[in-house]
Amino acid sequence: MKLSRLFVAIDPPKSVREILVSLDPHLRGVRWTAGDQMHLTLGFFPEVREEVEPALREKLGAIEFRPFFLPVEGVGTFPPKGIAKIIWIGVGAGHPHLFQLHKRVQEAALAVGIEPELRPWHPHITLGRCRGVPGGDLRKFLKSNTEFDAGMFRVEAFHLYCSLLTPAGPIHTCQLSVPTNA
Asked: Residue 1, Cα to own-chain centre: how many angstroms?
């Protein structure tokens, strides 16, 4: 049985990704995300059976939503306390249209038998991954960018990606794009 690693995401426009790439602090132990890999994950499905994929594409393609704007602001880390593993930028805490779209993606997955993720969802764009970063350097970067504002963008589509893990990093291939219906 062939399994695929899939995720549903919103892609920020190139102008926003360029701003986020330029934020790279070039700290030892921080691997900054390439601009073409930056996205806001609406759903991550690590083990999808090949025969389920067409049904998932069909359910996702039926999702209707109107365009909305998302602010890209506020740098933080996961976990929020202790040794950082992920550096992220937020996308508007509690944005109702975003949370509604996330809910619809989860419902589409559940309808085809894919278990939803049970952890609370914290919408963000991953900026970098940390391993053995000197704490003082990272704290200084975070303190100076807590309120960082990369602007706002209009969400007009979401995408289903297949993610293939390779030694050089993941390769994401778009399987489906779902535009707004307005």
From this structure: 27
Report the alpha-carbon distance of residue 162 to residue 12 in Å, rounded: 18
Reference 52, options 113, 137, 8; nearest CA is: 113
Task: Assess contact for 88 and 23: CB atoms under 8 A.
Answer: no
Domain layout of the chain by residue ranges: 3-179
- Contact between 102 and 71 under an 8 Å Cβ cutoff? The reply is no
pLDDT in tens, 98-126: 999 999 999 999 999 998 888 889 999 99
Mean pLDDT of 147-152: 95
**Number of CB atoms found within 10 A of residue 161's CB:** 21
Q: Which stretches within 85-156 are classed as H helix?
A: 96-111, 135-145
DSSP label at residue 29? T
Q: Which of 95, 65, 102, 96 is nearest to 181 (CA)?
A: 65
First-to-last alpha carbon distance for the chain, in angstroms, is 39
**Topology annotation, domain 3-179:** Cyclic Phosphodiesterase; Chain: A, (3.90.1140)
Query: pLDDT of 2-18, one tens digit each?
Result: 899 999 999 999 999 99
